[in-house]
Design a protein that fits this description.
Blueprint: E1 2-7, E2 15-18, E3 24-27, E4 42-48, E5 51-57, H1 66-69, H2 72-77, H3 85-102, H4 108-132, H5 142-157, H6 162-187
Antiparallel strand pairs: 1-2, 1-4, 2-3, 4-5
Amino acid sequence: MRGNVRDMASAAESGTIETPDGRLFRYGLTDLAGPPPRQGAGVIFTLEGDFARHVEPIVDDETLIKEDRRNWLRFYLSPVGRIRRRDYWIYGIVPLALLRLVLQGAAIELAMLVLLATTWSLTALNIKRFHDVGYSGWWSLLPVFTVAIALTVPTLHSGASTAAETAAMVMLVVSAVLAVLWCFGVLVRSGQEAENRYGPPPLRHP
C-alpha cells in the first residue's frame, strides 16, 4: 500500500501513516525497511492489521530508492515482498546453482554451511516469487510434502495390502501433479503488474 507519513516514529512512540483514502496505520522504527521517512514523505508498506510493516520511502510516484534496490543481502535472505521472474532466475537461481556446483568438492564443513545458506535463500526467493503472482508463500513448500510422500511410498509397499499400495501411489501422483502446476506454473509466469497484498510491483535490479 501507499501513503504519507503523518507523524514520525521515534524510540518512545510509534508513528502514523495516512493512506489516500484517509485511513491511519501505525508503525515503529523496527518496521522501517529503509531510511527513516520525514513527515509528509510518501511511503509504501505492507499491511498487518492496524499496523504498517516493511515501510519504505518513495523517491517519487514511480521509483523506489536506488540503494534499497541494491540491497543484495535482503534480496537473498528476506522472504518479505516480491521479486520479478527475471530477477528470480538471473540473480537468484542461477548464482545459487553455480555456487553449489563450484563448492561440491569443498570441505564437508564448508559444503554444509553453503548448503544451509543456499537452501534458506532459495526458500526466501520462492516465497517472494509466489508473492509476486499473488499467492501465499506457503504454496512454495508444496514440493516438501511431495518428497515426504515419495519417501513414504516404499515403506507402504513392504508388507502392505494392495489397497494401501494403490492409495500411496495415487497420493504420490496427485502430489507430483500439484507440485508441477503450483510451483513451475507460478515460477515461470509473469507477476502481477499492479500492487497486491504483498507490496507494490518490484523494480528490476540494475
